[in-house]
Amino acid sequence: MKSRVFGFAAALIGVSVLALGAAEARPLKWAAAGDALTIDPHGQNEGPTTSLNQHLYESLTERDHAGRLLPLLASSWRVLPDDATTWEFKLEAGVKFHDGSALTADDVVFSYERAMQPTSDFKGYLTSVEKVSKVDDLTVRIKTKGPNPLLVNNTSSIRIMSKAWAEKNGATKAQDFKNKEENFAVRNANGTGPFTLVSREADVKTVMKRNDAYWNKAKVPLEVTELTFVPIKQDATRVAALLSGEVDFVQDVPVQDIARLKSQPKLRVNSGAENRTIFFGMDVASADLKGDDVQGKNPFADKKVRQALNMAINRAAIQRVVMRGESVPTGIIMPPFVNGWTKELDAAPPTDVAKAKALLAEAGYPAGFSTTLHCPNDRYVNDEGICQAAVGMFGQIGIKVNLVSQSKSIHFNLIQKNPAETEFYLVGWGVPTYDSDYIFSYMYHSRTGSQGSWNATGYKDAEVDTMIESLSKEVDIPKRDATIAKLWARLKDETIYLPIHHQSLSYAMNTTLDIPVDVGNNPKLKMVSFKGS
Amino acid sequence: MLAYILRSLMQGLVVMLAVAFIAFSMFRFVGDPVVNMLGQEATLQDRAELTERLGLNDPVPLQFARFVIDAAQGDFGISYRQGRKVSSLILERLPATVELAVLSALFAFVTGIALGVYAAIRRDGWIANLVMSLSLIGVSLPTFLIGIGLIYIFAVELRWLPSFGRGDTVALGWWTTGLLTTSGLKSLVMPVLTLGFLQLTLIMRLVRSEMLEVMRADFIRFARARGIPEHRIEFRHALRNTMIPVITIAGLQLGGVIAFAIVTETVFQWPGLGALFVNAVQFVDVPVMSAYLLFVAFVFVLTSLVVDLVYVALDPRLRAGNPAMAK
After folding, report:
1. Are strands A249-250 and A27-32 parallel, antiparallel or unpaired?
2. Which chain B residues are Cβ-neighbours of A48 within 8 angstroms?
3. Chain A residues with CB-CB distance to B53 below 8 A
4. pLDDT tens column, B47-67
């Protein structure tokens, strides 16, 4: 009897395995709010662009959905034992481009050099690189200007293209706007990725086919036979397309629709933290603010005022009301998976209106003051709503805030102008290298030609600058981590920024799929396996 | 006649130049393309270099001169966002918008006139009253809401029509058309209804009131007195005289339909010029934005020219210079 049940079960399993093995067409339609800007792998370093391109092109390493660094085209890497400034990467053997040619060290050298050109948008990751050279067909060495212990973290962003293909098609330079010529790679692709390009119509759809000769087939399910990416800009239309079954998987699910989608039996919604923190910045350096009503003084320059503002923010209320639960309130401008993050740093001061008022009075503003807050309205999840909520909270401690919310194209311009044209602003920051150094360099380092480009606060501390600069050269990891901890302790106390929350992401899909939220918001559809159906 | 056309053409040219200038100077204020084009890792140096490479440091009159001279030759530069020629982007998107606009205009024109005439002839019938009340809703509902409403009924609930996009298209040379495939035709239904609805109600109300006006005129009474059959009076005499103002409005509306298809295209993710423009605005893609504005101005200039000509054809009194008619 037992054996018969067992036999029956075995037969059932056999049938289902057969059904899977039959490998019928499994198309997947994927929608997001915006389209990739280009499929030139070094043209634009921007979210939707990266998330499409990774299906066509691959890099030496990759990040999994939780942000962990894994080998991809490089099977292993090391810093040369006798030379701390040189990294050596061993390439996988047997990797083929879509056109059938084999991947060699020449392609890697070519791609890195292409990514370092002035017209490339990825050169920022490789500023420390002095030279990339081939040792043999499957070995590449990257020599840096000084010891760079974290170079490997940046390799997951640099995609490898075929040298011969780029040369043949005149695409050896990353997109260049000066010559008024189109670059062949903008609309054509030849990578080593799990999907090959079938057609690309910008802002309409991009169709990809499974790469049946994919070198890494053994390690990924790769069940999607045809992958179609459609950008749908309108939130309501995007959700409607999922509800009507025209698309299978939707990124950028509007927060207000999550509850409704979750209640649909045929849909699944996955939520999770994104690699992005939302916070306010303010001008802490100018002698006098233009947008406030205090004459001859800058209230933000006083640490007590900044602490009062920080205490006035009711992060739990923002999470509950504005974000409908889809965020993680925080006390630091660094998402949890970044090297240097600790639970203590993440803790925010409790909301305390009375104490905040007392601090303001101590600083000499018992009646508060008025100022202007700049906010984007089309960049982050409910960005304008966050600002509106905060304006009310600041009002409770007597700080009257005049809110100016506008499109990101204008908003970011205010922050990036040198000197900045805003004294109080909202911004969000993601950390693609998963290391604190990235935040320090862009947000805390004083503004110089190559650093502090997003530090619109005017914060400047020579000692902090020196400590930040030391990070990129320190090879002793525990010592480096100690410096990071020291920097954070100091910067958190300074309250240069007012952290709000880590942004959450939601993906909605039909129930045959279970795509986990990717912290970098780059869903990896080679990992999709279908269930049920 | 020729002088009249030449004068219209000259006027058109002046309008185009003015629009070019306004568009060009306006884009100095909408934001900085450089910020959007560089990733978040960009340094201050990178920004300075890219600004230089895009020629944004040159004096504004020089940039404008360069823009006009290039544009006159059909060269609108390279899209900052897509890295492709703007002229080819516009040509690629043109068929989608033209098909949508022409079908909506046709739908609005034919249905609008038919309903308008009906409402005028049977002015006290309950159907006519219902149509008139419904048209009030049509005028007051925003296009956006109509589009979303249609999507929820026909795509989500009934699943009859696709909620977005253009469906399959067939390429006839450089022109792609959705009129020859089932999915293409299905995709057209909702956007055409959405875009045409407002025009329809406007035309209908206009036809009705004009026609009621004409029906009260003396020559209609005389025609009745002469025993001319009623339907002949309605369609030969009254409708013909109603058409002059209707053609004027409808012609200008076609320009408006093309120019303002933006909302409909955004709601239905319709890959036309309006959607191209909206994406360009968010990215401060100046070459695309200025090319689009010039295109819209061009459409308006062209349609008002055509309307002028049709007007002349419909109303012989306007044909100055023709001695037989001048009497």
Report:
1. parallel
2. none
3. 119, 176-178
4. 888 888 887 888 878 888 888
- Provide the CA A133 distance to its chain's centre, in angstroms: 29
The HSE-up count of residue A250 (CA atoms within 13 Å, CB side) is: 31
pLDDT of residue B224: 86
Residue to test with chain A: of B30, B36, B40, most A Cβ within 10 A: B40
A461 closest CA partner among A480, A474, A443: A443
C-alpha distances (whole Å) from B137 to each of A109, B121, B133, B142, B201 are 65, 22, 7, 10, 9
DSSP string, A72-104: SSEEEEEE-TT-TTEEEEEEPTT-B-TTSPBP-
Residues of A in contact with B267 (CB under 8 A): 234, 236-237
SS3 A350: coil
Question: Which residue pairs, CB below 8 angstroms and at least 24 apart, start in B117-120?
Answer: B117/B207, B117/B208, B117/B211, B117/B234, B117/B239, B119/B204, B119/B208, B120/B207, B120/B208, B120/B209, B120/B211, B120/B212, B120/B215
Termini Cα distance of chain B: 18
Give residue-wise pLDDT tens across range A56-65.
999 999 999 9
Alpha carbon A240 to chain centroid, angstroms: 27
> Which among A112, A131, A146 has a CA at the least distance from the CA of A475?
A146
Mutate to test the interface with A, among B36, B73, B163, B169 (most CBs of A within 10 A): B163
Cis bond before residue A329 (omega within 30° of 0)? no
Residue keyed to tokens 């093995």: A21
CA–CA distance, B154 with B193 (Å, rounded to integer): 12
3-state secondary structure of B144: helix
**Distance from the A283 Cα atom to the nearest Cα atom in chain B, whole angstroms:** 18
Residue-averaged pLDDT of chain A: 91
Q: Across the interface, do A177 and B30 touch by the CB < 8 Å criterion?
A: no
Nearest-Cα distance to chain B for A520, in Å, is: 14
Counting as low any pLDDT under 50, the low residues of chain B are 322-327
